[in-house]
Amino acid sequence: MLFFLRHGHRVIAHDRRGHGRSAPASDGHDMDHYAGDLAALTARLDLRDAVHAGHSTGGGEVVHYIARHGQRRVAKAALISAVPPLMARTGASPGGLPNSAFDDLQARLAASRPEFCRALPPGPFHGFSRPGAESSEAIIGNWWRQGLMGAAKAHYDGIVAFSQTDFTGDLKKITVPVLVMHGDDDQIVPYAGSGPLSARLVQNGTLKTLQRIPARHAGHPGPDDQR
Prior knowledge:
By secondary structure, this protein is an alpha/beta fold. The protein has a single domain (25-226), classed as Rossmann fold. Helices cover 42% and strands 13% of the residues. It has helices at residues 2-6, 31-44, 57-69, 99-111, 113-119, 121-125, 137-149, 152-164, 168-173, 195-201, and strands spanning 50-55, 74-80, 178-183, 205-210, 223-226. Strands 1-2-3-4-5 form a 5-stranded mixed β-sheet, with helices on one face. The longest helix is centred in the first third of the chain and has 14 residues, at 31-44. The chain starts with a helix and ends with a strand.
């Protein structure tokens, strides 16, 4: 956000219902409501020619919002390590993750949310568990802090929302330019079943693949541009 502000852009980041500083809500933790909330926000602020960027579940929210509420206010979109087209394994999505993986997330969250929010960021989320990765306790602690700010039920129900929603039809409706960014070593949203497929399903998509650099090589992953 600071990067775009320094370059003269207006930047707006909302907290999804039940997350962050948004008020707790007992229901509505599904993609239809997430998209509806975003539509209400964009209408209230009268946003026009907006670029919608969504990470992980937020990418699904962006896709569902554009497909359900139209592109009149949208200039472009960016999906960053996002969950579309479909995370769960089905006949139409054989490369997805088994439902047991998401059941396990819900079970761990219900057993101890503080422990869940502390265990997820150092390993699969930020990839600090990879050989040679440089871990950051500050980043891990900030993930934990952000996680505990929200409501437990919102997080619990949200696991179903991001894992079981099929965005295939939504992606096909989008005609504005879409940038899809995804790491090929993503441990949360597997690359093969997400980024490349989303870039192909939208009508005007560009895929940037961030390649994992082996531990013996210094430096940062570089983008591999694909159309």
